[in-house]
Amino acid sequence: MGRQPCCEKVGLKKGPWTAEEDQKLVAFLLSHGHCCWRLVPKLAGQRRLHPYMHGDGSARPPCKRIHLVSDSQSHAGLLRCGKSCRLRWTNYLRPDLKRGLLSDDEEKLVIDLHSQLGNRWSKIAARLPGRTDNEIKNHWNTHIRKKLKKMGLDPVTHQPVAASRADPLQDPQQDPHCDGKASSQESAGYGTGASAEEEALTSAEPKQGATCSASTASAVSPSPCSSSSASASASAATPGGADVDWPDPLDLFQVDAIIDMDWASILSGSGGGGDIGVDLFDQCSDVGFDQEVWM
DNA sequence: AAACGAATCAACCGCATGTCT
DNA sequence: CAGACATGCGGTTGATTCGTT
C-alpha cells in the first residue's frame, strides 16, 4: 500500500539522544503527557502548552485537527520522529523505571512468564513494575538464555534440550531466537497453546498495573523517579555527557500528579485543577495552534 | 599499554493491531 | 465496510563498554 511512513525521514535525527533532547522530551511529557506521539516532537519545542493530553489513551482529544501554524518557527521542537520519542520515553526516560539489573526474583518471574507467554515481552513487562519490554528482552537474550542453556534447558520450550531436539519442526542448528521466522512460529505456538493461561494472566493485569502505575512513581523515592536517575543515566547515555539543566524534581512530581488526573474531567472543566481548567484555546494560541481547524 | 573479541543495551525497522472516518 | 492512520510490539542492529591476552 502507499502508506506513509510514521514520520518524515528527511531532516530527522537518528542515533543516540543528547541530554538536551532528553530534557526537552521529559519536560514536555511530564507537564503535558502525550496526545499523539507524532506531534510530540513538534510540540516539545514549544514554550507553553495546555496539558490537554492524556496518559492512558482515554479521552483522546482530536489530535488530527491539531495543526501547527508553522513548523519552522523560533521553537524548532525535536528533530525526531514520534516513534523515536515514544521509545525513548518508555524505555529510558519514564520516571517510574527501575534501573539496574533484574533481581533474582524478577528473573525467576520472567522465566516463569516466558514459559507461559513466549516472547511476548510487553506482556511480561506488564507484570514487572518499572521494567520495560526492551529491557527484559535484552536481559533475556544476554543473560537468561545462557543460564537456561547452561542448565540444559531449551530457552524456547523450557524443556530439557534433548526433549526439545526431538521436535521435528525445530531445526537444531538454528537458534529460534535469532531467527525472525522461527520466532514467529514459536510465538504462534505459544499463542495457541497458552491461550487459556494467557487469558488468565491478562485478566490479572489491571491489578498489577494499578499497583505500578503512577502511584509507583510517587511511591519510589523521588530521586530515582525523577531527574536524578534520569539525568544521571541520560548524561551517561549522552555521548558528550554534558551537564543538563534538569527541571526541579519536586516540580516534576507536582506535574506528574497532575498528569495522573482524569483529563476528561479536566477538559470538561470539572477537574478542579486550578488553572488547568482554563480554556484550551487560550493556551493553544500561545503555541500557534490554528483554532479554525479544531472546530 | 594496546589490540582484539565478547558482551551489553539503546535505538531502529518493519509488521501487526486497534481506532477513526 | 474499507481504507487510512497512529500506536504498539518483537526482532535486529550497531555503537559502546568491558574483559582478556
From TrEMBL:
<feature type="compositionally biased region" description="Low complexity">
    <location>
        <begin position="201"/>
        <end position="242"/>
    </location>
</feature>
<keyword id="KW-0677">Repeat</keyword>
<feature type="domain" description="Myb-like">
    <location>
        <begin position="94"/>
        <end position="144"/>
    </location>
</feature>
<keyword id="KW-0539">Nucleus</keyword>
<dbReference type="InterPro" id="IPR009057">
    <property type="entry name" value="Homeodomain-like_sf"/>
</dbReference>
<keyword id="KW-0805">Transcription regulation</keyword>
<feature type="region of interest" description="Disordered">
    <location>
        <begin position="163"/>
        <end position="246"/>
    </location>
</feature>
<dbReference type="GO" id="GO:0000987">
    <property type="term" value="F:cis-regulatory region sequence-specific DNA binding"/>
</dbReference>
<feature type="domain" description="Myb-like">
    <location>
        <begin position="9"/>
        <end position="93"/>
    </location>
</feature>
<feature type="domain" description="HTH myb-type">
    <location>
        <begin position="94"/>
        <end position="148"/>
    </location>
</feature>
<feature type="domain" description="HTH myb-type">
    <location>
        <begin position="9"/>
        <end position="47"/>
    </location>
</feature>
<dbReference type="InterPro" id="IPR001005">
    <property type="entry name" value="SANT/Myb"/>
</dbReference>
<dbReference type="InterPro" id="IPR015495">
    <property type="entry name" value="Myb_TF_plants"/>
</dbReference>
<dbReference type="GO" id="GO:0005634">
    <property type="term" value="C:nucleus"/>
</dbReference>
<keyword id="KW-0238">DNA-binding</keyword>
<dbReference type="Pfam" id="PF00249">
    <property type="entry name" value="Myb_DNA-binding"/>
</dbReference>
<dbReference type="InterPro" id="IPR017930">
    <property type="entry name" value="Myb_dom"/>
</dbReference>
<protein>
    <submittedName>
        <fullName>Uncharacterized protein</fullName>
    </submittedName>
</protein>
<keyword id="KW-0804">Transcription</keyword>
<dbReference type="GO" id="GO:0006355">
    <property type="term" value="P:regulation of DNA-templated transcription"/>
</dbReference>
